[in-house]
Design goal:
alpha+beta; about 625 residues; 29 strands; about 35% helix; 6-stranded mixed β-sheet; 5-stranded mixed β-sheet
Length: about 625
């Protein structure tokens, strides 16, 4: 058997087969613009035709035949590698359509010193469930199928928690987003309790997409960032709330940041308003509809991301250049400079999470989060994305949810590959006023909220209108230049050396805290950074909320907000102190009659029965005494 009659023909046929597979996968992917796809298709066809012609029609000498075999092998190898990445991309895109699944996670919680270690230990014991839980019936069915316990329903979250503290029940079963809310309000909850069992339910979410031609018509996307680790499909509070208004004809993106504590009416509810972050506890649909009501804007799609997953995404991009309005120390060991900083995933997360370093607290954190998104958009829209494509696919798989359809995603990708436009990104933030109030989700006491500033909302609506109508807007970010690498706090320069780089204008010192929420009974020590004199004058704007001693020790007194100011030689620095009292069980007047006593005849009701009575443990305890 000679090379002439066999091997060159075999390699040519193999090359043709894998080239055909490559062409088919390119067509199935439907990601490339015609002007790119057709030349690739033409080159592959010509190479294979020439290769087959040389193999079967022309007599070649042995040396040329060897060269032809090598070329066929190279073409085959390229086709195999290309087909692998195309298959991976097609699989990734197809999996995006399976994003309608929502996961609701539950914990069975007992006191830390309790002897219960597993669910079966609670047989015939008193168990509380939260009456307002949207999946209450499923919880009852689950518990009924695993243990024969005794169930008490409670409609008030504070009473729900206190029933466990006072050992009036043996355990509580609570959805994880409500558990996180209790942990935020009561800092001792985690140390006083333990979780002995967890379970979850999965169900399909409501389709709230309003589809448009994303390459020709403006559209809006709600970006929900969950500041936790775990399954992205899990129901959780939304700590990052950004609306992206996109005009694909003018290549403009408007990012609107809405503070997590914005006091708004949850869509379709009555009674108290609520923090926007609590909307996520009722599903991404509630967040979308609530923001639509607030801005008078149709939100076409949502993009739900575990914000910590940005570590993987940004690392896969090879890092990004993010713009900082200030030089500041982060809370986890990095020093960021005013201007552009070249950051990896971990540094970007530290930048996006920083809050206490700023006088504006959450407001500035929202701006920083927008800056990270702008940096990701800029990097993803650059030619550098081609070499990072595979690692990026690995990084984002399973890290986000969206109701964008597959065809819409590929259309946007084709638009970018076809035109390679440079996008103009403008960032704005809604503003408000610090306050405290009762909320729809937690009506047992006042929580810190931000009362909306209607002027900032009206201004946002006007800019939204400009983007939708195609008017030109100015970018919030200048040309990328003078890029610096974040430093380590131990080696960071003194922030007071250059007045242009410090956060607080016209002062030579600052406080260790700029904005903090504390509880009654939780003293906080304020420390002056880089004081020039030892004589300090301290003042509280509202001593009935919190007092401050001559050495900067803050003592919370009652619910409310006060500003603590330190003065040195006419120069001042200040911080906002927000005081809450989570154990305050005085309910608002409208809710005084919500809870009723449990009748003794119902005290042994089992899980399988329909229970509709609430519990007022305080009154029951008084009766027993």
């Amino acid at each position: 058997m000679t090379i002439k009659c066999c091997w060159n023909k075999i390699f040519s046929v193999i090359s043709l087969c894998f080239s055909t597979i490559l062409i088919i996968l390119l067509g199935l992917l439907n990601l490339m613009p015609i002007k790119i796809y057709l030349p690739i298709l033409l080159v592959i066809m010509i190479l294979n035709i020439v290769n087959l012609f040389l193999s079967f029609k022309i007599k070649l000498n042995k040396k040329i035949q060897i060269i032809q075999i090598i070329l066929s092998a190279i073409m085959t190898l390229i086709s195999i590698i290309g087909s692998f990445y195309l298959s991976k991309t097609i699989l990734f895109i197809n999996n995006l359509s399976d994003n309608g699944i929502v996961t609701q996670n539950y914990s069975v919680v007992v006191l830390k010193n309790a002897t219960y270690e597993q669910l079966n230990d609670l047989a015939d014991k008193n168990i509380s469930i939260f009456k307002n839980d949207l999946k209450k019936s499923k919880v009852i069915d689950y518990l009924n199928g695993n243990i024969n316990g005794k169930l008490i329903e409670v409609s008030d979250l504070l009473t729900f928690k206190e029933s466990l503290y006072k050992e009036q029940v043996d355990a509580i079963v609570i959805e994880d987003s409500y558990k996180a809310l209790i942990e935020e309000i009561d800092s001792e909850f985690m140390s006083k309790t333990k979780v002995i069992h967890t379970f979850s339910f999965q169900f399909e979410s409501e389709d709230i997409s309003k589809n448009v031609d994303v390459t020709k018509e403006p559209f809006a996307v709600y970006v929900s960032g969950i500041d936790t680790y775990g399954n992205i499909s899990s129901v959780s509070r939304s700590d990052v709330n950004i609306v992206a208004v996109v005009n694909p004809k003018t290549y403009q993106v408007l990012l609107i940041s809405i503070p997590r504590d914005y006091y708004v009416r949850l869509h379709g509810t009555t009674g108290y308003k609520d923090k926007l972050t609590h909307a996520g506890m009722y599903g991404v649909e509630m967040s979308v509809q609530t923001i639509e009501d607030l801005l008078g804007l149709t939100i076409n799609y949502y993009f739900k991301v575990n914000f910590t997953s940005l570590i993987d995404i940004i690392d896969a991009l090879g890092g990004v250049d993010v713009y900082s309005e200030y030089s500041f120390d982060s809370e986890v060991g990095y020093y960021f400079y005013k201007g552009y900083n070249s950051v990896n995933g971990t540094q970007a997360l530290a930048f996006a999470r920083a809050r206490h370093a700023f006088i504006d607290g959450d407001r500035q954190r929202g701006k920083n989060q927008q800056a990270v998104i702008e940096a990701v958009i800029r990097k993803a829209a650059s030619k550098a994305i081609i070499t990072k494509f595979d690692s990026l696919l690995d990084a984002v798989t399973g890290k986000f949810q969206t109701n964008l359809e597959i065809g819409e995603i590929t259309d946007l990708a084709k638009l970018q590959l076809d035109k390679m436009p440079s996008w103009t990104v403008k960032s704005i933030s809604l503003n408000g006023f610090d306050s405290s109030n009762y909320t729809y989700t937690y009506s047992s006491g006042e929580l810190y909220v931000m009362e909306p500033d209607q002027k900032s909302i009206d201004s946002a609506k006007e800019i939204i209108s400009q983007v939708l109508s195609g008017q030109k807007i100015e970018s919030s970010y200048g040309e990328v230049s003078n890029i610096k690498n974040p430093g380590i706090i131990e080696s960071a320069p003194d922030q007071s050396n250059d007045g242009s780089d410090v956060i607080e204008d016209d002062i030579d010192f600052s406080l260790n805290i700029s904005d903090v929420t504390v509880q009654v009974g939780e003293n906080t020590q304020l420390i002056i950074n880089n004081p020039k004199e030892d004589i300090v004058s301290w003042n509280s704007s509202n001593p009935s909320v919190a007092t401050v001693s001559s050495d900067g020790l803050v003592t919370p007194i009652s619910d409310g907000i006060t500003t603590i100011t330190a003065s040195i030689s006419g120069k001042t620095a200040s911080c906002i102190i927000r005081v809450t009292n989570p154990l305050n069980i005085i309910l608002p007047e409208d809710n005084e009659q919500e809870n009723a006593d449990i009748d003794d005849s119902n005290s042994d009701t089992t899980l399988g029965e329909d229970i509709s009575q609430d519990v007022d443990y305080e009154e029951k305890q008084e009766e027993n005494e």
